[in-house]
Amino acid sequence: MKRWMVWLIIGVLLTGCDQTKVVDDIDLVQVAAYDLEEDNLKGTFAISTYTKEGEGQPEIYTASGKTSKQILALASEKSSKPLELGQLRVIVFDKDLAKKGLKEILDTMNRMPNVGNLIYLAISNGKAETILRGSYTKEKGISNYLPSLIEQNITYGILPETNLYLFLNQLYDDARDSYLPIVSNKGNILKIDGIALFKGYTMVDSITAKDLFIFKVLTDKFYRGTYQFKLPGTPDNYAVIENIKAKTKYKMKGNSKYPFIDARIQVKGKIQEFTERKNLENPKEVQKLESVMEEELERQAAKLIERFIAKGTDPLGLRKFGRVHTRKWNDKEWAESYKHLRFQVTADVKIIQSGVTE
Amino acid sequence: MKKVPIEYQISPYMVFFLVNSMQIGVGLLGFERISAKLAGNDAWISTLLSGLSINVMIWMIYKILNQGKGNIVAIHHDVFGKWIGGAFSLIFLFYLLVTGATILRTYIEVVQVWMFSIMPTWILVGIFLILCYYIVSGGFRVVAGICFFGVLLPSTLAFTFFFPLQFADFRNLFPIMQHSFKEIIKGMQGNLFSYFGFETLLVYYTFIKNPKKSQKFAHYGALVTTAVYTYLMILSLVFFSEKQLASAIWAYLSMSKIIQFSFIERFEYILISFWAFVILPNVVLTLWGVSRGMRETFGMKQKYILPILILFIFILTILLDDRNKVNLISTWVGKSGFIIVYIYLPVLWLIQSLQIKFRRQT
């Protein structure tokens, strides 16, 4: 029995034979960016350097090539330590590349087990490289700033929920299309510019930040975010509502050949700001305000949906509603009927609070 | 047939752990993909049906064993005589052995793909098999103990089954039953292999105290497996979109990629390492079963048979050096298992029952 123990110990010790990856001996890429460069792909990788004082400015490596994996290998030839993707937080693609399609890179990321599922994807308005190269305040290097910017705006703001897993999920789902946030930088500030709409792996349209609230109402069920309404009457008359709970219920009537979408938006909110004083103790005034907001929401939402239809993309997953709720669903008929889909949007706004002042 | 001394036997309730630990193995990590390819969003019905049919087969195995005089080797000897019966026993034992090797190789493939890509197969297999030798040479009660822990320890990971729910889209399940009955039956092919392993019961039956009492525990074990598999199938269907699931080789691991804690960001690495506890009973019990069966067929001592079997598994796993070969042998094992459990065992039952009737009359 004793001899066996020796063999067991030797056996256990031998397992140390695999290549180790000690944190100090590798460079962890935290933000990666890909640009289209004529017919080449250009990759930029930001690595945080850790100094005694804490986090310093990120180091940046770039390389051009044909495939994303080759680019990483080429960039690794320039760095002092091997580049690893295990801690990747965000991948930024430039607009031109997104318009050409992201299939190759995303399939590679999906294939690699060491890339996490919850990383963010973003589209840059200009070159993706400039976003990484921008100089941001010291404690907020790009590798910290960009991921928290997106995360913060998803949880507290009006950015619809996205990440690599959700994007791929919607992409592989033949009943809906996906979307990604657009970011840009100005000086030392990053900003969310809107949402890029995809059809399969290719970007087909974009929505500006102004419409993000409506877009999120249509796609997600969410609890925060503000929206500014223009009130009728004098030209500079606005009201700001803070959302407490918003969602859209869809119903598909008819069949795949003659479909009719009935979308009901429900927003519960509290009044935050008025440019003109109104007496909110009066239920009639509140009702009036609500109906103004309802009209505005209906108009904007209808405009967005018309736009999706015109571009042939289905970010709301309407096909899925049809497939689930309609008997004898036919995907081919739907592909044809979606081009001139009839729909109706009705909004229901409820103002349940107006702050602490009358 | 000599009776197994009582100090080597196990209590009837242990059969629950033996059946359950043999069924839940490497299959759980990725059985969802093939079912989803064949039966789409109705794959969970296939999974449920497979589990229920397995229970029917367990009932039949107990019918065979209860009216026979011993385990499968003794029954073969009784029904078909020394030579033909012996040959059938050998075929069955060979199938068990290859199953064990396949399970081990598949697990090591997971380790290689997800964690240590340049780790040679033989190192992992070698260490694993040394441990197996140590356990199996301890006798059946030790093996049963390992099976007990092989259920208990991994069950602490059950919480990972609930994390993916935050991204669940239950609309994926609808419309229910849009696939034809034939497609759903076909979908069962995708997950039946993950349910196999319970047929080792045919070998260790004589080691159970009051074997007739153990039947309900065997059913409980298989029902728990059915519940776990069906739940996981539904979970994968709502977590992935259909085509995404069809391309995920290890769906369960891909799902657990979204589990994040502040102290460990990538939980799937813990999961894969922990899975060795799930694989160990599978390999150990097949090794014990095959060596015991061989002992009864040839009259050799288990001590001498075991090293030969271990060497066989060692060589076989090294020969399977790429994804295609692993896939090929998994399919082969799955098909053989299907033939043995669903075609051969009913036939055996029929012949055995007729023979008993005939003998009674004469």
TrEMBL record, chain A:
Give the GO terms filed under biological process for this record: spore germination
One Pfam family hit: Spore_GerAC_N
Main subcellular location: membrane
Do the record's keywords include Endoplasmic reticulum?
Answer: no
The answer on whether this UniProt entry bears the keyword Kinase reads: no
A GO CC term assigned to this protein in UniProt: membrane
The record places domain Spore germination GerAC-like C-terminal at: 193-355
Keyword terms of this UniProt record: Germination, Lipoprotein, Membrane, Palmitate, Signal
Give the subcellular location: Membrane
- InterPro entries attached to this UniProt entry: GerAC_N, Spore_GerAC-like, Spore_GerAC-like_C, Spore_GerAC_C_sf
Report membrane topology. Lipid-anchor
Q: Which residue ranges does the record assign to the Spore germination protein N-terminal domain?
A: 21-184
Record's family?
Belongs to the GerABKC lipoprotein family.
Protein name (database record): Ger(X)C family spore germination protein
**What organism is recorded for this protein?**
Mesobacillus zeae
From TrEMBL, chain B:
Q: What is the organism lineage in this UniProt record? A: Bacteria, Bacillati, Bacillota, Bacilli, Bacillales
Supply the NCBIfam families for this chain: 2A0309
Q: Name one Pfam family in it.
A: Spore_permease
Q: Which GO terms describe its biological process?
A: spore germination
**Which subcellular locations apply to this protein?**
Membrane
Report TM segments. 12-31, 43-62, 83-108, 114-136, 143-168, 188-208, 220-240, 269-291, 303-320, 332-351
Write down the species: Mesobacillus zeae
Q: Which family does it belong to?
A: Belongs to the amino acid-polyamine-organocation (APC) superfamily. Spore germination protein (SGP) (TC 2.A.3.9) family.
The protein in question is named Spore gernimation protein GerB
Q: Which UniProt keywords apply?
A: Germination, Membrane, Transmembrane, Transmembrane helix, Transport
What membrane topology is annotated for this entry?
Multi-pass membrane protein
Any one annotated GO CC term:
membrane
Q: Which InterPro entries match?
A: Spore_GerAB
